[in-house]
Amino acid sequence: MKNLITTFCILFISLSLFSQEVIYKEKKNITYTLRTDNYSQERCKVDIYYPTNKKDFTTLIWFHGGGLTGGNKEVPDFLKKKGIAVLGVEYRLSPQVKVADIIQDAADAVKWTFGHITEYGGSTQKIVIGGYSAGAYLSLMLGLNKNYLANRDISTDALLGIISFSGQAITHFTARKEKGLTEFQPIIDELAPLFWVRKDAPRILLITGDRELEMVGRYEENAYLKRMLGLVGHVDVKHLELDGYDHGMTYPAYPLLLKELENWTKK
Question: pTM of the prediction?
Answer without folding.
Answer: 0.92
